[in-house]
């Protein structure tokens, strides 16, 4: 879904958009629904989906036939979440559409990363992965790259044929991967290009909403930089490893500090490393990632006449999709309910900031 230039040039309609979003927010699933599903079976989840707002997408999966029960559920969930976000974005105008487009484009970033990680070699499954289908670029573009472009060079050429910004960013990342064979450098090129593109688009928006979107991009940059900071030292040698433009972590702090408590001290983040007993680097990153989503979700109840509501709502929609997808996989593996619940990120958990 590429935003219409006609609509991005109009006056923003936050009051109308946010009223619709708040009404739709009442349909987000509560904690008790996830607990009930965790205690059931995959067949129970199928019946639930048929009666939910994911029902139309699930019936489409049934009509096409083929595929496993789990595959049908995962496809329906991905399509349903995309429908919710794109239908909401279609109501936005002017600045509010521009800012909602940043949210949707996060799907492009996720999809691009999936493709880069699948490019260096190996046999891919015949079916495409569960794309973040709310992306600005059409999912058929990502299907094409997955099915027809097994090498980075193939991907770079295919991206060159597309006429939209993210294809150019992804194409450059493929080129880096082709020339260097270095996945980290290719991913960095992807993230750097994505952040630069959106910072350029929102530059000059110096009102409260513009500052919020700049903060959002800065916090996302912190998330990327923290994932790099957690890597062994030899992988992050050199100041070019970290992306500029972070919200709370300075380049100096990232390059010189080796204690996570010192890194977060004075950063503006309220995250406390190790508070939840994280034992590994990956545990610590997932905990910080969850903290970021808690912050984004909290915006839903902040400025009711600005971009906050859309940012908070989108975080909840994506998290609902992820929780339901995780439940589906866990139920297919017959995991105990208590174990499944431990992996869920449910509404109302944690603190933010």
TrEMBL record:
Coiled coil: none annotated. SUPFAM superfamilies: V-type ATP synthase subunit C. It comes from the Bacteria. It holds the Pfam family vATP-synt_AC39. Keywords: Ion transport, Transport. One of its GO terms (molecular function) is proton-transporting ATPase activity, rotational mechanism. Belongs to the V-ATPase V0D/AC39 subunit family. This is V/A-type H+-transporting ATPase subunit C. It comes from Aminivibrio pyruvatiphilus.
